[in-house]
Design a protein that fits this description.
Helix content is 50%, strand content 15%. It is built from six helices and six strands, in the order H-H-E-H-H-E-E-E-E-H-E-H. The longest helix is centred in the C-terminal third of the chain and has 15 residues.
Length: 150
Amino acid sequence: MSCGQRLAKAMREKGFRVTAQRAIILETIAHMQGHISAQEVFERASARLPGLNLATVYRTVESLHKADMVDLLSPSGQPKRFALRDAGDPHGHIVCRNCGAASTLNNEAIRHLAARVYDSTGYVLDEHYLTLEGLCPACARKAAGRQNRR
């Protein structure tokens, strides 16, 4: 079964009608590495599907996210980014609120954090959709340097 056929089958199982636009958008996300913006999806997918518009990409990606087929990374002040969800590799993200740099948090770190949150609050974290914000090492060094000059 080809990648496109496998993705189309997964879309149908999630209750989606498989249109050419949806199939190409999902295939595009699957074949691009990392977390990509809707604009990047649009640029790549429109080469295969002339006439595609950016609003369709946004609507489709949001729907795919709601269907748990696409992970969403939404750093403050930065464009949303997406990646195909890999059920076999759940992971979270840590994003720099200053420069937008993003790193992956491995499943072990997520499980440990989820257990601590549950123990202290009773909340069950969604381990497939966890994004923490802070300062990356470079931005933290710059911030510390500014503090030291005061």
